């Protein structure tokens, strides 16, 4: 992906070289999953004490996870707002604004005083920052995926779309490495008091890097050609709902398994193994790092191979594997054997990677250029609400009241939703983006 991109159909050269385009689309997704992991981990381990100290331990954890869910609920709003401008004024400008809102909101959480300093204002401000963060995140992935797919040569969209998808394992790996280092170097009291803020504050650095890269990339050739020959929709959300209702709903369903596997493996399994089984936190973080490597390899390889075998068949295989592995994961964890634990985590993230890899090309290919930012972004974030927003609360409640067998069954049901959704959608590999 380091060679120059092909000439746009209009005769204008595509903006930027392959490396710059890939990095610009990669950085936002990396920050997104970095944020997802650090907030989910902090919500499970620290935020209940910091922002909800008047509640019991279980109630405080559920309250902090509720703030986690609020961020996801705000994401479809962000997809609508940023999709509106992305489909009307262009991908580049919209992506710059979404990156700033997303990253700065994340960093500000790291600066927010707790309940002991601000009283009830502390959790209120935390919720407000999560809403702003969710709005920014809602506009991010759709635009990042389009930045790659709309620059890609025909027959290589899966490979190019691997760039934003690789942001997931890289962001996850960096976040896990940061938490592992903090757990290794800081006493528990120091981590609970101020150490948890460090991963949030590092978002300042990530945003600065991402902003510098994105400002170097011009508009995508597909959108430039569209605005040169046709008029943009006045209200893209209305157009996409009217013309692509099936693609919106089924596209959302296709991503549910990704978020359920990611949340469970990254956050709930960490909490369960350390607090319930007594596995040392550093051990679990180290095992998670190994599993994240599996996620990264699977994401890239399957995204690339989707240009050969198609998106749909590979994603169906990943979702079917997720149904089975959901019922295997916790029996492996319950052995408390590090080798079997890492096998369990790696299997969950392998399932995620198989579906996640082709998704960067698959969702954009379902929609026309005039509504592609809105369509891909809304479908992605609706799936995120169900799989990533509601799942943490449901999994935590099921684990507390019914045990891990119930958690595994819930995960399997979510994987079935994705399996049926992908099955009901067509193959998109050979579609011309200008003719969808």
UniProtKB/TrEMBL annotation:
Q: Does the keyword Transmembrane apply?
A: yes
Q: Which GO terms describe its cellular component?
A: plasma membrane
**Name of protein:** Putative proline/betaine transporter
Gene Ontology MF, one: symporter activity
Provide this UniProt record's keywords sorted from A to Z. Cell membrane, Membrane, Symport, Transmembrane, Transmembrane helix, Transport
Question: Boundaries of each Major facilitator superfamily (MFS) profile domain copy?
Answer: 21-429
Q: Record's InterPro entries?
A: MFS, MFS_dom, MFS_trans_sf, Sugar_transporter_CS
The job of this chain, per UniProt, is described as:
May be a proton symporter involved in the uptake of osmolytes such as proline and glycine betaine.
Q: Which Pfam families match?
A: MFS_1 (PF07690)
Q: Which family does it belong to?
A: Belongs to the major facilitator superfamily. Metabolite:H+ Symporter (MHS) family (TC 2.A.1.6) family.
Q: Where does this one sit in the cell? A: Cell membrane
According to the record, the segments passing through the membrane are 50-74, 95-115, 121-147, 159-182, 194-213, 248-265, 285-302, 314-333, 339-363, 375-399, 405-425
UniProt entry tagged with the keyword Cytoplasm = no
């Amino acid at each position: 992906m380091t060679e120059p991109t092909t000439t746009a159909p209009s005769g204008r050269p595509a903006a930027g070289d392959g490396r710059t385009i890939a990095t610009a689309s990669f950085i936002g997704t990396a920050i997104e999953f970095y944020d997802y992991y650090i907030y989910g981990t902090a919500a499970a381990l620290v935020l209940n004490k910091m922002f909800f100290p008047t509640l019991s331990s279980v109630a405080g954890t559920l309250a902090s996870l509720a703030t986690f869910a609020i961020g996801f609920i705000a994401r479809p709003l962000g997809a609508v707002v940023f999709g509106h401008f992305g489909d009307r004024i262009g991908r580049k400008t919209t992506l710059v604004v979404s990156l700033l809102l997303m990253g700065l909101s994340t960093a500000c959480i790291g600066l927010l005083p707790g309940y002991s300093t601000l009283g009830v204002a502390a959790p209120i401000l935390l919720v407000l920052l999560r809403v702003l963060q969710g709005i920014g995140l809602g506009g991010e992935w759709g635009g990042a995926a389009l930045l790659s797919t709309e620059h890609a040569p025909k027959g290589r969209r899966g490979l190019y779309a691997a760039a934003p998808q690789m942001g997931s394992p890289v962001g996850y790996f960096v976040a896990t490495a940061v938490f592992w280092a903090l757990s290794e170097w800081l006493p528990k009291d120091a981590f609970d008091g101020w150490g948890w803020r460090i991963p949030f504050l590092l978002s300042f650095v990530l945003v600065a890097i991402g902003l510098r890269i994105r400002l170097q990339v011009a508009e995508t050739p597909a959108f430039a050609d569209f605005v040169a020959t046709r008029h943009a929709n006045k209200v893209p959300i209305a157009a996409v709902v009217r013309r692509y209702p099936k693609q919106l709903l089924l596209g959302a369903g296709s991503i549910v398994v990704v978020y359920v596997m990611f949340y469970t493996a990254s956050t709930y399994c960490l909490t369960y193994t350390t607090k319930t089984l007594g596995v040392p936190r550093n051990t679990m973080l180290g095992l998670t790092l190994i599993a994240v490597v599996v996620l990264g390899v699977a994401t890239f390889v399957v995204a690339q191979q989707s240009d050969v075998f198609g998106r749909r068949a590979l994603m169906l295989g990943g979702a079917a594997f997720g149904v089975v592995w959901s019922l295997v994961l916790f029996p492996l964890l319950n052995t408390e054997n590090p080798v079997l634990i890492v096998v369990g985590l790696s299997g969950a993230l392998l399932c995620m990677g198989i579906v996640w890899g082709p998704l960067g090309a698959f969702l954009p290919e379902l929609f026309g250029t005039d509504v592609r930012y809105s369509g891909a972004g809304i479908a992605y974030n609706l799936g995120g609400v169900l799989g990533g927003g509601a799942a943490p609360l449901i999994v935590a409640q099921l684990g507390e009241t019914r045990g891990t067998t119930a958690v595994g069954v819930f995960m399997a049901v979510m994987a079935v939703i994705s399996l049926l959704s992908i099955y009901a959608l067509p193959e998109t590999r050979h579609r011309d983006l200008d003719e969808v």
